[in-house]
Write a structure and sequence with these properties.
With about 130 residues, this protein is mainly alpha-helical. It is built from seven helices and two strands.
Length: about 130
């Protein structure tokens, strides 16, 4: 027999997976920023970085990323075809294009260039 429970909870699973992806991406960005502070400003970084601040930053990252991921709850839905539930998008083509552009910006065009630039700063600082 076919396991169809996934199709009923696909919006929730999709939101959870996307939230985990965003959380990982922005956690790497936050850790990279911390490394830049440690390498470029070693003396001042002791005042800027603390365990308590790091925990707050991680919590903020989780809350924001999971909040952004909730768009999957509204974008996806279950459509029953021939008595079988299927996970499908509820958005129009125009909405899907906008969502794709927003997701590409949030997923790639913000964190990846930032992480790249910050790592270049770290490398150039270590070469000095």
């Amino acid at each position: 027999p076919e396991w169809t429970i996934h199709n009923y909870i696909c919006p929730q699973l999709s939101a959870l997976g996307y939230g985990a992806y965003l959380t990982a991406m922005y956690s790497v960005l936050a850790f990279t920023i911390e490394r830049v502070l440690l390498v470029v400003y070693p003396m001042e970084s002791n005042k800027m970085i603390s365990r308590k601040k790091n925990i707050k930053i991680v919590l903020v990252i989780w809350v924001v990323c999971m909040s952004v991921a909730t768009m999957h709850l509204y974008r996806l839905g279950v459509k029953i075809e021939d008595g079988v539930p299927n996970c499908t998008t509820r958005s129009s083509q125009q909405e899907a294009k906008i969502i794709t552009l927003v997701q590409a910006t949030i997923d790639f065009f913000i964190p990846i260039p930032a992480i790249t630039v910050l790592n270049i700063i770290i490398i150039s600082s270590l070469r000095k």
